[in-house]
Specification:
Length: about 325
């Protein structure tokens, strides 16, 4: 009987974590959807937008395609964001719990938990990321896909079955490991430091079923999440560009060469455009996007944990 209650409690925690992660994913992705679309257009050097910067590009989208075009592809992104964020946040909590992570001084364990959580979520939801990128890359005057279902069927029939949905998967995974690892580690470390050294300025009291403790205030959550996003994306950005080129390679005959493999694509990007305008193209918008994205995502997840009594706080 005691074992059954324990298993039921664990299942309840997992379900609540999935809900909290899903809500966090929707809020974070919706908050940065226009920047997400602009980043894809810049990374893949769309003919109508490659000569523009971030802000002029956003205005050009509104002028050329209308305001709603800023959110093109966001529906499929939300469909992906819910399971992705739910799995990523829940996996991290579970890895952290079962491996006895985040003890003071446990640097490598915290990093590995975040990396494993990111890799787990990315593997499961990657096809939706590819479809979303295809839809976001289209402009109103030149469309290949009428929607999610049409894109799925067309890619499956014309590009080799399920393999079509996993183009760019390996650079994504190689970039995900340091990115997710540093993201979760940085957030948890900053959260710990705030609670330990400045609880009266950055924390507030929170009562739960199991007692009370200090919780980060909403501004502190946003600050820690934003800092985590800024740190993590520096390392993985060239691989993110490579992934996008491979995902979008079959949309234009001139870019079919990027479907030949990860290392070939990296080499071609470097030869044709160099480092600044090639491998790090769109990096400025990535920073503009990553900071609020991570800030909103982590802050929402932490708030949902408090609401669902998943976080008992830290005693000080």
């Amino acid at each position: 009987m005691a074992q059954f209650k324990k298993e039921t409690k664990n299942l309840e925690v997992i379900v609540k974590s999935l809900i909290a992660g899903g809500v966090a994913g929707v809020c974070a992705k919706t908050a940065v959807a226009p920047l997400d679309r602009m980043k894809i257009l810049l990374q893949a050097q769309h003919e109508h937008y490659k000569h523009l910067n971030v802000f002029s590009g956003l205005m050009e989208i509104v002028w050329r395609e209308g305001f709603c075009a800023l959110y093109k592809g966001n529906f499929v992104q939300i469909i992906r964001a819910v399971p992705y964020a739910a799995i990523q946040f829940t996996a991290f909590e579970q890895y952290k719990k079962h491996l006895g992570l985040l003890r003071e001084g446990s640097h490598i364990d915290g990093f590995l938990a975040g990396a494993a959580a990111g890799a787990t979520a990315a593997t499961i939801t990657y096809p939706l990321d590819t479809i979303r990128a295809r839809l976001a890359f289209q402009v109103t005057s030149n469309t290949l896909y009428a929607g999610i279902i049409h894109a799925t069927v067309k890619m499956f029939k014309e590009e080799g079955g399920f393999r079509a949905f996993y183009k760019g998967f390996w650079p994504n995974m190689l970039g995900m490991i340091p990115s997710a690892g540093f993201t979760f580690y940085t957030f948890e470390k900053l959260k710990y430091l705030c609670m330990k050294y400045a609880p009266h300025y950055l924390c507030s009291k929170h009562k739960t079923n199991t007692g009370g403790g200090f919780m980060l205030t909403i501004p502190a959550k946003l600050l820690c999440g934003g800092a985590a996003g800024a740190v993590a994306h520096i390392f993985s950005y060239p691989l993110d560009v490579t992934k996008r080129r491979m995902q979008l390679a079959m949309m234009n005959p001139a870019t079919h060469k990027y479907a030949m493999g990860m290392w070939f694509t990296i080499k071609m990007i470097y030869v044709e455009d160099g480092i600044t305008k090639g491998l790090y193209r769109g990096m400025s918008i990535n920073f503009l996007r990553a900071v609020p994205f991570m800030a909103v995502g982590f802050a929402t997840f932490e708030l949902m944990k408090q609401t669902l009594d998943l976080d008992t706080g830290m005693k000080v």
